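Structure in, sequence out. Go:
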């Protein structure tokens, strides 16, 4: 017998969870049933809205059904859980992005998987018995099903507090924290449901809305912000230990019972996600990195054993509260490459022009994700899973999106002139090259005149980012084109920032790389000076990487071999990002500065130093961080 009652009534598609004895815990089969119903109703004109509710008074949905995950995981089979989470997260995104109104009635407990089901929809109703929480850290997991999306948007530091303590929000708390929209007394719910079914008008929800009671969570907002403002778990724990209040003591006591690794991961995830580029898909993709690894490398199975199976409530966590390192967190949050969460419902027809060191792995990642990719490169290079065309015009025929990755603006202009007449009206021309702003804007204008949409989206992340699907895209162009390309950015990279009008993507890239060029030179100069002053490189790194001299050039891409994370310096300065390319980008920055009449003396100096290094010395073909051995050999004067 199904655990969901799915039917059409009046103008509404209705989904009712029917496992009240299990607090309507969400099983794998229930997820798939709900998704199939949503797919069916999407194109059904007789269905005006979706109504989500549950049988019983105790719970809308108290979480996911984790018993089978434990049984399979303890036997060493992690695929069941990974597949469940993958499909559940796709459902969560579908609910959040559904084109028709979805109204959820969050009665009783709504926890974990229940938040994923009813907490991202367009209209979320709570009543006096509603209790909403993300309790995952208590079982060695992290807030998932898009929970980090909600936590990252909560006011102040409530997200950190809710994610680490599993605090149960009442109706007013949930509205204050962004987990619900509307308070309606529960005795008014039956009549509201009837009206929604009969009329198909979601305005009925607003008509029934009542003033929200005062929120206890809001009243404690300032204290929570002070206590949970730290960057790491240790910072938060120390703040709680040093606060004399009863609230701090009780909160610390709660946190000492849950998984330290899970708390540290939750903090890092919220911090990474918080900001204007946050989307539900970005949050779910980050969560899936943990889901994919948590049974094998985290505390999840031990947490379930202690809380659900043996019920001894004495879990043997992998770490002490103060023992979780940055490396422990980083390992769990590394990108998954080919196993990255994929939300794609249908394959897109994509053309990819320019299959070089960057373009080939980008095109291959799109093909691996299930898209139909046709490629062309004048050098005859190919990419895994990509169909080869004999010419650029042949490649772009019928393509919904045409992606270019080319060496410079002149070549981009030439290719655009060649392919635009053969592209379908309404298609998107997505240029990922790093070129001058004028060329980007000229091509965008040419595409617009031909009835196309254009985006300039230069990338940061190098060959490794292209292969691993972790690039950052800086995007200029119209909103509609960005929306079409966004799922492709999510496959090829980990972040895409819409910077505004056409050409602004290139502007962001050259400004970013001018900073990078200048800071790398300064970093190399400082290491050379430290050598000559008798200061060890290790001591130099330890001080600067945690002090005001902190920079990406020092902390993530250290130019000194054997110091800090592995970088091209540890591989003989074989390029991750070649000095030749840095020189190209710096020249573009100075070309733009001249056009804009901007004074950039450090950018000019960096350009000249890299010109000398590449054209007059031995820098050509070496990594841009090879400036360090250059400075080692030189003396003042």
């Amino acid at each position: 017998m199904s655990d969901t009652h799915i039917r059409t009534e009046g103008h509404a598609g209705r989904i009712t969870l029917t496992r009240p004895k299990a607090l309507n815990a969400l099983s794998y089969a229930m997820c798939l049933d709900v998704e199939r119903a949503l797919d069916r109703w999407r194109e059904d004109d007789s269905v005006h809205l979706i109504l989500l509710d549950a049988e019983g008074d105790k719970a809308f949905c108290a979480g996911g059904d984790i018993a089978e995950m434990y049984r399979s995981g303890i036997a060493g089979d992690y695929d069941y859980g990974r597949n469940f989470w993958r499909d559940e997260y796709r459902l969560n995104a579908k609910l959040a992005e559904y084109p028709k109104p979805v109204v959820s009635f969050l009665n009783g407990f709504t926890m974990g998987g229940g938040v994923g089901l009813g907490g991202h929809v367009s209209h979320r109703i709570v009543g006096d018995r509603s209790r909403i929480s993300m309790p995952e850290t208590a079982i060695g997991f992290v807030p998932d099903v898009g929970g980090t999306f909600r936590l990252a948007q909560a006011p102040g530091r409530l997200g950190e507090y809710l994610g680490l303590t599993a605090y149960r929000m009442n109706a007013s708390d949930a509205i204050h924290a962004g987990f619900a929209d509307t308070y309606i007394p529960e005795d008014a719910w039956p009549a509201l449901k009837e009206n929604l079914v009969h009329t198909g008008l979601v305005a009925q929800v607003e008509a029934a809305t009542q003033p929200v009671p005062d929120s206890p969570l809001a009243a404690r907002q300032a204290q929570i912000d002070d206590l949970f403002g730290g960057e790491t778990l240790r910072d938060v724990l120390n703040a709680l230990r040093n606060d004399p209040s009863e609230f701090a003591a009780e909160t610390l006591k709660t946190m000492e019972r849950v998984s330290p690794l899970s708390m540290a991961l939750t903090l890092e995830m919220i911090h990474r996600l918080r900001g204007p580029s946050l989307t539900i898909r970005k949050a779910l993709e980050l969560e899936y990195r943990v889901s994919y690894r948590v049974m094998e490398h985290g505390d999840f199975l031990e947490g379930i054993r202690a809380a659900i199976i043996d019920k001894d409530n004495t879990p043997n966590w992998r770490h002490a509260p103060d023992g979780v390192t940055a490396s422990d967190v980083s390992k769990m949050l590394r990108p998954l490459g080919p196993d990255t969460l994929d939300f794609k419902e249908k394959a897109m027809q994509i053309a990819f022009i320019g299959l070089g060191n960057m373009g080939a792995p980008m095109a291959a990642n799109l093909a691996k994700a299930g898209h139909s990719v046709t490629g062309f490169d004048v050098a005859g290079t190919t990419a895994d899973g990509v169909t080869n065309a004999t010419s650029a015009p042949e490649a772009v025929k019928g393509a919904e999106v045409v992606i270019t990755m080319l060496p410079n603006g002149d070549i981009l202009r030439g290719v655009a002139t060649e392919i635009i007449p053969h592209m379908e009206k309404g298609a998107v021309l997505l240029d990922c090259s790093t070129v001058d702003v004028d060329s980007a804007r000229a091509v965008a204008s040419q595409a617009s005149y031909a009835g196309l949409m254009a985006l300039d989206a230069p990338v940061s992340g190098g060959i490794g980012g292209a292969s691993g699907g972790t690039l950052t895209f800086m995007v200029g162009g119209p909103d509609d084109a960005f929306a079409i390309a966004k799922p492709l950015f999510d496959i090829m990279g980990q972040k895409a920032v819409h910077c505004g009008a056409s050409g602004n993507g290139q502007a962001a890239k050259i400004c970013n790389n001018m900073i990078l060029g200048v800071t790398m030179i300064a970093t190399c100069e400082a290491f050379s000076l430290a050598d000559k002053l008798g200061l060890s490189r290790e001591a130099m790194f330890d001080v600067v990487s945690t002090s005001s001299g902190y920079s990406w050039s020092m902390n993530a891409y250290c130019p000194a071999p054997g110091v800090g994370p592995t970088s091209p310096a540890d591989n003989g300065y074989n390029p991750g990002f070649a000095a030749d390319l840095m020189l190209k980008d710096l020249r573009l920055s100075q070309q733009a500065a001249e056009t804009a009449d901007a004074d950039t003396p450090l950018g000019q100096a960096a350009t000249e130093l890299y010109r000398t290094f590449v054209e007059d010395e031995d820098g050509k073909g070496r990594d841009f961080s090879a400036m360090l051995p250059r400075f080692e050999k030189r003396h003042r004067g």
